[in-house]
Amino acid sequence: TMRLAQRLKEGLLDVGARLVTPLDPALSGGVCIAAVPRAQRRALFDALYREHGIIGAPTGGLRLSPHLYNTDAHVDRAVEAVRRHAALLA
User: Measured at the alpha carbon of residue 39, what is the angle toward residues 64 and 37, in degrees to the nearest 5?
Assistant: First the structure.
């Protein structure tokens, strides 16, 4: 899960997201939180779920937590979904 979380964090940075979670895996575990303005959160969460089947939590921004049952392809799909809605990150 640490490897997947690191892949997710790096992918979100590539998309232009600002991470709330530290990039250092020793400081963040398997959790990844990207900053999303409060006014945009609902629109982003709705779009990720409705259009991409991705569920996150609005805790402090966009919270995604890959687990053992996730794959690189799942993480890449999540990053691509956020890329499509990157305008909501600012």
Answer: 55
Q: Is the pTM of this model over 0.90?
A: yes
Looking at the chain, list the stretches that DSSP marks H as alpha helix, in order from N- to C-terminal side: 2-15, 38-52, 72-84
With tokens 């799942």, the residue in question is: 74
Please choose, from the candidates 7, 74, 76, 79, the residue with its C-alpha nearest in 3D space to the C-alpha of residue 62: 79
Task: Tell me the C-alpha distance between 62 and 83, whole Å.
Answer: 13
How many CB atoms neighbour CB 22 within 10 A?
A: 11
Q: Token pair of 9, please?
A: 């964090």
What are 21-30's pLDDT values in tens digits?
999 988 888 8
DSSP state at residue 31: -
β partners of residue 33: 63
